[in-house]
Amino acid sequence: MKKPTSIFWICAITFLIFTFGYKNVYSQTEFIPPNYTTQYPENGRYQILISGIKRADTFKLDRYSGKVSQKVITETEDLIWEEVEVNGHPENNFKVSAYELPGYYLFISGMTAKDVILVDVKKGFTWNLVKDIKTEVLFFDPILSEKYYSENIEMFKKIKAKNDSIDNK
Fold first, then answer.
1. Total Cβ atoms within 10 A of residue 165
2. Fewest CB within 10 A of the end CB: N or C in the chain?
3. Average pLDDT value for residue range 62-66
């Protein structure tokens, strides 16, 4: 009878590593949470969300009113919740609806710190977190539906031209 060769042992060790060591090997299909969130009751009003990419992106969401605050360090190094303005949605008569039950969800991308999206889960309206270039103030700006945009494109062109003329002065 032949003795096992070194190729046999290499194959056996490789098999054992892949069989029992799979938890340490990550695949592209493995779920990695996009953000860290508090556990809250189903009808809980507030939720804390922390970006997995940028710790400074820590938000408190009022799930009933859609109000969002960001954790900020003051000049005296105290922590405060600074409210982030949510511009009214044009497709909702420039309003942000309030509900008697949770109606908002805050999505924080696990891929880039730029993608923070507020969703009105009852009506489907969405807002993207943006930063004013001049003042560096954060605010949520509506993301429009393609239909609304195409129906009002002339208005948007006029607004853009007006803003461009103000910026060039």
1. 9
2. N
3. 91
